């Protein structure tokens, strides 16, 4: 179903095992992004490496262990370090300044009182070819929580949860500006390296992140002690929207007026796609809440398989009328119960019966 790799040791050892046991998935990622960069903006791989190197100084200053881990991935997969650096800066390369983009990704979190458990999950929508790049990594690091994460081969930070009760999902945002600071995928890894919500937020605040994105973060600290929030990150700082009624939803457009003062969105399909998915997800949650239903993982499965506004639905399908390199669809669906420390995963477009515990 998915290549599952347990990683432990030094940052370099963790990376080397990732690259060696996930070599096929790393190569798939390299092939996908070489095609994607050229399709979006006629950017060659050599040029993409130059862009990625602009972030090297900031990554080294932020956390040199990330450099060591990426060096290990490169060694294990038999590719250049710069190739792995490109994969970990792929959002900064692919999504900044791009127009006429078919977006994706719907993320949801619920906490008490609307659900007994603290649950967070999303449909991750991207290129279909990246289905073959997916890895399930379980990472043990000295002095840090144990991480369980779904990622693309070669990328050392993405969507998952840790043993400290922190979970994170990702929504891409397309804007006109970026910096040479920390790429968003390394920001996600920093969240998963954290022992608390306070620590996680401190690692992505103050303009430390190179480009705009939404990190939906949930934290479970024990019975009656949980919170979920959208944190829109950017080179100009963050904005935070907590779910005071126990629900949080995000798709692929900026919600922060403060960040809109600094950034111009370049996604031209907000109202036809992202806005509808967000409103639809909120509607589905409201219907369950109004009926007095206590929300659980089975409800998430129903929501993530929803096809209203097909093909631009929560369960996203490729639009055959779009150019091939712009055709996006749901690549995987993930549901994480932070209270129970469990993960359910569906590879490909989700069906209610398609989720398995991993």
Features:
single chain, 358 residues, Penicillin V Acylase, Chain A, six-stranded antiparallel sheet, 12 helices
Could you explain the architecture of this structure?
With 358 residues, the chain is an alpha+beta fold. The protein has one domain (98-357): Penicillin V Acylase, Chain A. The protein contains twelve helices and 14 strands. It has helices at residues 11-21, 23-41, 45-53, 56-62, 64-77, 81-88, 90-95, 184-192, 197-202, 257-260, 270-290, 297-304, and strands spanning 3-8, 106-110, 119-126, 134-140, 147-152, 159-162, 166-172, 213-220, 226-233, 239-242, 247-250, 329-337, 342-347, 356-357. An eight-stranded mixed β-sheet has the order 1-4-5-6-7-8-9-10. A hairpin with an 8-residue loop joins strand 2 and strand 3 (119-126).
| Percentage beta strand | 15-25%
The name CATH uses for the topology is Penicillin V Acylase, Chain A
Widest β-sheet, arrangement of strands: 1-4-5-6-7-8-9-10
Average pLDDT, all residues: 94
Radius of gyration, CA atoms, in whole angstroms: 19 Å
Amino- and carboxy-terminal Cα gap = 10 Å
Number of domains: 1
Shape: globular
The biggest beta sheet is recorded as: 8 strands, mixed
Poorly predicted runs of 5 or more residues: none
Helix content: 25-40%
Order of helices and strands: EHHHHHHHEEEEEEHHEEEEHHHEEE
User: Which architecture does the CATH hierarchy give at level 2?
Assistant: 4-Layer Sandwich
The CATH class, by name, is: Alpha Beta
Helix/strand/pairing class, anyone? alpha+beta
What is the number of strand segments? 14
